[in-house]
Amino acid sequence: MLFIPRHVGDETHATVAEMQRLGISARLLSAEEVAQRFPFLDPASNHPAKPVADPEFFEPTGRRIEGAVFEEDAGYVVSPGVATQNLRRAGERDGVRFLLNTEVAAVDHPAGGGFATRMTDGTVDESDVVINVAGPHSAHVNRMAGVELPLQTRALRREVHLLTNPRFEEGSTDSLPIVGDLDGGIYFRPESGGRDVLVGSTEPACDEPEWIDDPDDFDHGVTELYRERQCWRLMKRFPEVGYGPARGLAALYDVTVQDWYPIVDRTDLPGYYVCIGTSGSSFKTAPVLGRLVAALVEAQSSGRDTDAQPVQLELPHVGESVDTSFLSRLRKPNTSTGTVIG
């Protein structure tokens, strides 16, 4: 993965140093090294990103990027659909019951304790604990349960677009990296076995966010506005790419508006937990978030106040523990890029 920040400063150097301390193969490349390692990428700086209607959109800035972080072993989930089915089967093997094509009508919490989750078909599921992992519907489910949080989550409509990868050759090992291009306002990566390039947005300030009030009612098709924004920005960074026919899809992020970090915590309603606000970047981190939710429920159920004593989550693969208060509902907004990058 190649990450191109808007600026390279102390925070970037500290992040790379921490990654290296944890054994991650990461290093900071200069603009010249980026051009040498990836000669098909233009190392010009495009920050701040401009709207496509700006007459200077394609005008050179005369500046180069300040550098980029290269993580050689990074990857992505090639087939999220297959991965999701695998997770479902693993859950069913361990006793998880999925109620598919079933809509929740209400989340009641009787005075005697516990929860009664009522479905639109009239069935009721009784439980001691409810965990809101409803994605773009997270705020709606919180309202059903009568839960208010200090931090706000909202559904954000996003589009991704596909273009033919001009560098694709059957059997070639010269692959396109995953690129998080905050400087240019996009991210892109190989798709369809490398035959295509998938491009999405990193929410530059010049683009108005498209918040959705009803996550069951939004346009699933791609639009010319998003297509021009993302594809033209891609063409500036990767000039060999051609425009081609419209291909892509639209879906929703579940965004913590204040800082784009997830909220993984208990709430003021005993037994009701949230794992929400994960935007579009938490599919790969889902197993860790699941461990954290389990630790939260276990700690609270044993009488521990996790507001006063936050869970210290053990990460066995790297031999570290993490103070998870930075994901608390009570936190001050984290410093972040304000994008899907985090």
Describe the structure in brief:
The chain has helices at residues 10-21, 31-37, 80-93, 138-145, 224-237, 286-301; strands spanning 2-4, 26-29, 68-71, 104-108, 115-119, 124-127, 130-132, 153-164, 179-181, 186-191, 196-201, 211-212, 248-256, 263-266, 272-276, 312-315, 320-323. With 342 residues, the protein is α+β, with helices and mostly antiparallel strands. A hairpin with a 4-residue loop joins strand 9 (179-181) and strand 10 (186-191).
Question: What characteristics describe this protein?
Answer:
FAD/NAD(P)-binding domain; globular; D-Amino Acid Oxidase, Chain A, domain 2; alpha+beta; three-stranded antiparallel beta sheet; 342 residues; 6 helices; 2 domains; nine-stranded mixed beta sheet
Please provide a written account of the structure.
The chain has 342 residues and is of the alpha+beta class. The chain has 2 domains: 2-74 and 159-247, D-Amino Acid Oxidase, Chain A, domain 2 (2-Layer Sandwich), CATH 3.30.9; 80-152 and 259-327, 3-Layer(bba) Sandwich (FAD/NAD(P)-binding domain). The chain has helices at residues 10-21, 31-37, 80-93, 138-145, 224-237, 286-301; strands spanning 2-4, 26-29, 68-71, 104-108, 115-119, 124-127, 130-132, 153-164, 179-181, 186-191, 196-201, 211-212, 248-256, 263-266, 272-276, 312-315, 320-323. The strands form 4 sheets. Strands 1, 2, 3, 8, 9, 10, 11, 12 and 13 form a 9-stranded mixed β-sheet that branches. A 3-stranded antiparallel β-sheet has the order 4-5-6. It is globular, with a radius of gyration of 22 Å. The protein starts with a strand and ends in a 19-residue tail after the last strand. The mean pLDDT is 95.
